[in-house]
Write a structure and sequence with these properties.
Layout: E1 25-27, H1 30-34, E2 38-39, E3 44-45, E4 50-51, E5 57-58, H2 71-77, H3 87-102, E6 110-114, H4 123-127, E7 132-137, E8 145-149
Antiparallel strand pairs: 1-6, 2-3, 4-5, 6-7, 7-8
């Protein structure tokens, strides 16, 4: 907790502003939503960082993107501050969450990708890692799921 603003002490607060009327969305396919960080044949998360011969790592931006992150699977498995678990554990969590919330990953999901320039919450993510907002409506569930990701999350 910070100090009382009336006590003369310095405080620093994060201020988030938004204008939801500026948000836009578009339908997105399941494969584009999930992105390159998932192997559909093995149903496993796939690391997108590659290790060079000298031992250092590198990652390339997805085709046609200004961000270093491509889609939900990669955002889940490689968040800005890391999951710090083995890939097998991250994959188990990913598949379990998708099964429970979405009924699994299927083309029957109604997925929309939303703009992120309507709120300052996403600003830091747009600078490097990426900023994402998706809504997913499972056909056999009585709810909609929103997934927001940014390096400020």
């Amino acid at each position: 907790m910070g100090k009382d603003p009336d006590d003369g002490g310095a405080q620093q607060f994060t201020s988030i502003s938004s204008d939801p009327t500026r948000s836009t969305s578009a339908p997105v396919s399941l494969r584009d939503f999930v992105g390159r960080g998932y192997d559909w044949d093995t149903e496993r998360l796939e690391p997108t960082w590659r290790v060079n011969e000298g031992g250092s790592g590198h990652k390339t931006s997805p085709p046609g993107s200004d961000f270093m992150t491509d889609g939900y699977a990669e955002a889940f498995a490689d968040p800005p501050y890391g999951l710090r678990v083995e890939n097998s554990q991250a994959t188990a969590w990913f598949n379990s969450i998708n099964a429970d919330l979405l009924g699994g990953l299927s083309d029957a999901l109604e997925i929309r990708s939303w703009s992120t320039d309507w709120s300052t919450w996403f600003d830091d993510g747009r600078e490097w890692w990426g900023a994402f907002l998706w809504t997913i409506r499972p056909p056999d569930r009585p709810w909609m799921v929103a997934i927001a990701a940014s390096s400020t999350d």
